[in-house]
């Protein structure tokens, strides 16, 4: 019971944390821009020193290795330059994240499905386009862009701070003869032929203050624009390609489909074995009893009557076993009255008392999810009744909306038995884990020796539209 609550609380906390992290970049308003100024200023000020350092290091190592490419160790030097470019690129991604930009998914540097030998690892950067893009970013693009953004940052910050505070500290600096006053130039340009008589010191201080205020008010927009420029370039050159994300998704879907096929195959083989060992043997015995009855019906009616009683018992037991096996298929009550009623009926048939708690939040579940949830609950209740030695079982089924993560159904079965349950290959919980993974879900098993045992199946699903749900019903 405590494990179930802890797991649910943990998932709720992680969801809340994720939502808060995702909500931070979506804040709007001028105040939010100012809140990000310190981080963006730190990012922009450090950009050019890091970029120039990267340019000097990368160009030295790369061109040294390129000049010795016909020698064996020249290849190693070029590879070192590519790995160094990868390091500077990853640093740029970390700095952008620290500056408040959404995380950029890094490339897949190593392929898990490929054998990793020494020469394969050594020569892999030559055939991986990401390394060359990182080298291009570190040697050409980032140094050029960083010089521009660093210069704009320094100039904008200097004018903003110097203009708004100049009236304080400029009085302590001796005035020298000037060839012109900037405020006079601006006034003559705005008002040609004016005859304004303004004290040059006062006019210059006022003009510098107004200019500083303008630069100070626009400073958050400038910093955000310069940071976005670096972010766009990094997403284009340093981020993972969409084809890689699709490749990962295809691999996950293939694995899930394989797990589902294996789980279905295991279920069919188990059903075949159960029918062979149970009803089939009883039907063979029933056939033999009927043949014996036919032979004794005329010469020994009393003995035939006794065999009829035994045959009737055999038929009744065979029917009971077939009913028990048919629970492995979707029962009519599930199709007619829904998952909640089907689970309550399943709990009533358990030899161990089951407490049922169902809260589906009026979410329309797909038929496949209802059917699999019913099978999972039936398997867990059967395991608890047969193997746990429990005197009480709790079945809890809920749904939750995780926002961007989609909808999930959580099914928990908790018993007060002896514990020690585990997903041993070839046994029930292992097959159940394959079924849940085939649904792209997670099976959680917590069963310390001595109990209690808590097993939870968490499965994602897409709710049915109201029209589709009513049509299904």
Sum up the structure in keywords.
473 residues; alpha+beta; five-stranded mixed beta sheet; elongated; single chain; 16 helices; disordered N terminus
Describe the structure.
It is a single chain. Helix 3 packs across helix 8 and helix 10 runs antiparallel to helix 11 (301-326). A five-stranded mixed sheet has the order 1-2-3-5-4. By secondary structure, it is of the alpha+beta class. The chain folds into three domains: 27-170 and 177-240, no CATH class; 253-326; 332-472, 2-Layer Sandwich (Heat Shock Protein 90), CATH 3.30.565. Helix content is 67%, strand content 8%.
Helix content: 55-70%
Q: Which structural class should the secondary elements be placed in?
A: alpha+beta
* Approximate strand percentage: 5-15%
Count of structural domains: 3
- The chain-level mean pLDDT equals 77
The separation of the N and C termini measures: 34 Å
Computed CA radius of gyration, to the nearest angstrom: 37 Å
Low-confidence stretches: 1-27
Note the overall shape.
elongated
Q: Please report the total strand number as a whole number.
A: 5
Q: Specify the number of helices.
A: 16
**Describe the biggest sheet?**
5 strands, mixed
Order of helices and strands: HHHHHHHHHHHHHEHEEHEEH
């Amino acid at each position: 019971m405590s494990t179930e609550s802890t797991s649910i609380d943990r998932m709720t906390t992680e969801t809340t944390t994720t939502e808060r992290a995702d909500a931070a970049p979506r804040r709007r308003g001028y105040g939010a821009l100012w809140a990000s100024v310190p981080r963006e200023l730190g990012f922009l000020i450090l950009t050019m020193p890091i970029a120039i350092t990267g340019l000097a290091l990368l160009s030295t190592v790369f061109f040294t290795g390129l000049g010795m490419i016909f020698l064996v160790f020249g290849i190693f030097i070029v590879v070192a330059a590519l790995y160094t470019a990868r390091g500077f690129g990853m640093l740029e991604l970390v700095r952008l994240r620290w500056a408040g930009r959404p995380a950029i998914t890094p490339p897949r540097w190593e392929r898990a499905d490929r054998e990793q030998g020494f020469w394969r690892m050594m020569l892999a950067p030559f055939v991986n386009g990401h390394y060359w893009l990182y080298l291009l970013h570190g040697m050409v693009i980032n140094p050029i862009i960083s010089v521009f953004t660093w210069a704009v940052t320094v100039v904008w910050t200097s004018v903003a701070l110097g203009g708004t505070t100049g009236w304080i500290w400029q009085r302590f600096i001796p005035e020298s003869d000037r060839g012109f006053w900037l405020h006079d130039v601006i006034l003559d340009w705005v008002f040609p032929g004016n005859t304004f008589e303004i004290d040059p010191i006062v006019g210059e201080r006022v003009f510098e203050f107004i200019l500083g205020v303008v630069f100070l008010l626009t400073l958050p927009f400038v910093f955000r624009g310069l940071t976005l420029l670096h972010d766009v370039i990094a997403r284009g050159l340093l981020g993972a390609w969409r084809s890689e994300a699709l490749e990962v998704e295809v691999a996950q879907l293939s694995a899930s489909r394989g797990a589902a096929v294996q789980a279905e195959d295991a279920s069919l083989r188990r059903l075949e074995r159960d029918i062979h060992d149970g009803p089939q043997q009883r039907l063979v015995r029933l056939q033999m009893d009927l043949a014996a009855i036919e032979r004794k019906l005329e010469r020994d009616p009393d003995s035939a009557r006794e065999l009829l009683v035994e045959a009737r018992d055999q038929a009744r037991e065979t029917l009971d076993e077939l009913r028990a096996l048919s629970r492995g298929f979707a029962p009519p009550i599930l199709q007619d009255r829904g998952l909640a009623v089907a689970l309550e009926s399943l709990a009533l048939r358990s030899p161990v008392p089951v407490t049922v708690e169902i809260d589906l939040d009026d979410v329309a579940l797909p038929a496949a999810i209802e059917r699999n949830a019913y099978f999972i609950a039936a398997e867990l209740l059967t395991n608890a009744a047969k193997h746990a030695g429990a005197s009480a079982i709790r079945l809890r089924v809920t749904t939750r909306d995780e926002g961007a993560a989609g909808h999930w159904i959580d099914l928990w079965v908790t018993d007060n038995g002896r514990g020690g349950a585990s997903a041993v290959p070839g046994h029930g919980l292992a097959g159940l884990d394959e079924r849940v993974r085939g649904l792209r879900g997670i099976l959680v098993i917590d069963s310390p020796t001595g109990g209690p045992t808590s097993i939870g199946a968490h499965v994602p699903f897409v709710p049915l539209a109201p029209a589709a749900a009513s049509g299904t019903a």
